[in-house]
């Protein structure tokens, strides 16, 4: 794949995405249930924009063990529907999934700062600084494109240097949390990260899911444009070509 060839992205809300290239689908952090509202009282604002039947993953990557990323109600349903699809994630994810009634052969543990090849996707596992100490982000490589997905993280003093050390070529896109609560960057910190990494495209995420934990993406988008980086808001469930 050449750099000017498209990759499609579908935002599932919060930190969840479907990345598709040449018919292969990488699903990240699919969150479908009401478990956060039931257990933690955060009012869910967004219904799942894609059904489990329409996920059709070739690979599932879970960044950390929090209810809105590793959904303990939805993930078993996804595994039952797609029992041969690998579930990739750091130690906390593996421990949680091993406690469920899953086929253990499909579990793939990963470590920070390592790169793994999965069909058409090359995934470099990046550090993230969050309340799950095993939390990770990732750099998704497809052909000549690299897309950095921050997952949940604060703007730790080491984060930018660590991400830069793992980038093998100029970043095409950055998808970054902006909600500014519960150990995540706010939009100003997210702009600082984007400015340092200098991607072509910057896309905000991790907002709009819960009434008590959201943010307006417009200041982030405008600030990115002011520094010469294309930025826009994804529509949940809609396929966007980047």
From TrEMBL:
Transmembrane portions of the chain: none
Domain Metallo-beta-lactamase: 13-206
Gene3D superfamilies: Ribonuclease Z/Hydroxyacylglutathione hydrolase-like (3.60.15.10)
InterPro entries reported for this sequence: Metallo-B-lactamas, RibonucZ/Hydroxyglut_hydro, UPF0173_UPF0282_UlaG_hydrolase
Protein name: MBL fold metallo-hydrolase
Classification of source organism: Bacteria, Pseudomonadati, Bacteroidota, Flavobacteriia, Flavobacteriales
